[in-house]
Amino acid sequence: MKNFKKFAINRVGLISISSIGIGLFLLSTIEIGRQQAKFEVLSSKFTLSGSSSGNKWVLAANSVASTGEFEFRDQELLNISELTFTIPIQQLKCSNHQQESMLQEILIQNNCTKLAFKQEHVMILPIMKMAHVIGGFSMFNGAYNIPMQLHYELNEDRSLRIWGKQVVSLSAFGFKIPAYEVGKIDDEMELEIDFVLVNKREGRTNLFVWNRSL
User: Fold this and answer.
1) For the chain, which domains are there?
2) Which of 42, 115, 119, 145 is most buried per CB count within 10 Å?
C-alpha cells in the first residue's frame, strides 16, 4: 500500500498533513482513507542582504506569513504547490539600527512596502533533495519572475525543513537608484528563506482528524 502525505502551510503558521491510502477489500471494494494532522512552523526566517559603500548589511525577519503544500510519498517529495510568502519592509530588522532606518527609508520612499513571492512552476529533483521553483517576486511597483533553488529535509521525527536563497536585482524591477543615494545601496541583493515545520501538539495528543469513506 502506498501512502501519500501532504503538508499545507497556512497564514497563521499551522500546517495540515493528509495521507491517502488505497487498497483492495474482498477483491472487489476499494477503500479510501483520509487522514489529517495539524503541523506548525517551529521557526521561520527571511533575510535580505546586500552591500552599501563596500559594507555588507543584512535585514532579517524571524516570522514570515506564508502558504504552501508539500506532497510526499515514501519520504520523497512529489510536489510543491501554492507556495507564497510576504514580508512587510518594516518587519525587517538589522543589528545596526541606523543602517536599518536608512535601508527601510530608501525602500519605502520608492513604493516598496513589502516583499512577496508567489509560486508559478516547480521541478522536483529528488536525488539532490532539491526543488527548482519559479514564481513572481513583487517589489516596488512590479513583479519579476525569479527562480529559487530550495533544499528540503524530511526527518525521522516527521519535521520538515525547507531553505534556499536567490540573488535579485533592483534594476530588474524598474528601480533606479537616485544620484543622491548612490553608494547607500547596491543594485544586487540576496534573499534567503528557512522554514522548519513540526507536528502540532496539545499536551500529549496529536491533532488528528480521520475521515474514511468507501
Assistant:
1) 41-200 (2.40.128.110)
2) 115
